[in-house]
Write a structure and sequence with these properties.
By secondary structure, this protein is α/β, with parallel strands linked by helices. Helix content is 29%, strand content 27%. A hairpin with a 2-residue loop joins strand 16 and strand 17.
């Protein structure tokens, strides 16, 4: 095909997955153009800003964006005492600063980052049409554009199950070293959380998309309860929210004409279907996607299949278990007989969650 290429790699989305993918490809000398509809990196923030300790092994600069360390998890199940689980370490970060640093690293590696750019269409030949009318072409297209990925849809990989979330930031009245989890049948397919970060906290909730109308009232009531307990202030400092993919991993590569298409992060369903956590998987998969793009451009015909195998080995065991546990909870809720055991079996802090074999078939990719 005699098509003029504007770059070796086009990356759609400049969150952690996209920034790491772009960085990895550019660091190997590839010309990379990265696009994001946001006007600047990391804003608005659309996550709870918790990162498990393991991702610190991937990014040395995390200390500079950390608000506080987390030591434990405290779980509240309806009508039962609080359960504190120690040895659940992690850190609360500034997601805005985190994303900005990843983009700065990508720019330093030579990536052309364009913000405030809307992608209108992914063409059948892999071309990327912008709202300005400009058309961009590259032999590799990386989709890191979130749960409702336009790139993923172009290769028929669509997240089939979505949780909608709503979050507010509130003053924190008492120092806290744990992430708090609230499990209730009032939040079908989701849960609520209080994540401390210094003198403020992220207070949020998620539910299945069809129950999104429950979110506002539930979160207001929870905020009022915690304020009455003296744990948080009554003021709301900011609002955010957004979709989270919870159906399991999608098939992570495909083709549009001669263009190789690679998906990373939420675009290929790597958020945990139970916890919703996805920063760590975005960072890891983004790096792997960038490496796969480089290998493919250097005529390694097996690189995309190897990328798929790497994602499977790293993420599928945890994702498959989470998909199974999530569906068990939804089944129990539908039957109207939710028990404390069901909640414990459906949440990562409890031994019941880890007992028994999990299914071997991915949710979205089955």
């Amino acid at each position: 095909m005699n098509m003029k290429h504007d770059a070796d790699v086009i990356v759609v989305g400049l969150g952690p997955a996209g920034a790491r993918a772009a960085n990895a490809a550019a660091a190997e000398g590839k010309k990379v153009i990265a696009l994001d509809r946001k006007r600047e990196a990391g804003t608005p923030v659309q996550c709870a800003e918790f990162i498990p300790t393991m991702v610190g092994q991937e990014l040395a600069q995390l200390d500079a964006v950390t608000h506080q360390r987390i030591r434990a998890m405290e779980t509240y199940i309806e009508n039962t005492p609080r359960d504190r689980t120690d040895n659940f370490p992690g850190r609360m970060i500034s997601r805005e600063a985190f994303d900005r640093r990843l983009v700065e690293d990508a720019v330093s590696a030579g990536v052309e980052c364009r913000f405030g750019v809307k992608v209108d269409e992914i063409a059948d030949d892999g071309g990327v049409r912008l709202s300005s009318g400009e058309m961009l072409h590259a032999p590799v297209l990386i989709g890191a554009d979130g749960p409702r990925s336009r790139v993923g849809a172009a290769i028929d990989q669509v997240n089939s199950e979505i949780v909608e979330s709503r979050q507010i930031t509130v003053p924190l009245k008492k120092a806290h070293d744990a992430t708090d989890i609230f499990l209730t049948d009032q939040l079908p397919g989701g849960y609520a959380w209080l994540f401390p970060r210094g003198d403020v906290a992220n207070l949020g909730a998620g539910v299945t998309a069809c129950a999104r109308d429950l979110l506002k009232d539930f979160l207001n009531d929870l905020h009022d309860d915690l304020a009455a307990q003296g744990r948080v202030g009554s003021e709301v400092l900011s609002y955010t929210g957004g979709p989270i993919p919870v159906g399991g991993r999608l098939f992570a590569h495909g083709n549009l004409g001669d263009v190789a298409v690679i998906l990373a992060g939420d675009a290929c369903g790597l958020a945990n279907p139970v916890t919703g956590g996805g920063i760590s998987s975005a960072v890891i998969s983004g790096e792997l996607a960038g490496d796969a793009a480089v290998a493919w451009l250097d005529d390694d015909a097996e690189s995309l299949d190897e990328y798929e195998s790497e994602l499977s080995a790293i993420f599928d065991p945890a994702l498959n278990r989470a998909v199974t546990r999530r569906h068990e909870l939804l089944d129990a809720l539908e039957k109207g007989d939710m028990t404390t055991h069901d909640f414990r079996r459906g949440w990562i802090a409890y031994a019941e969650y880890w007992n028994d074999e999990t299914v071997s078939v991915r949710g979205n990719a089955a």
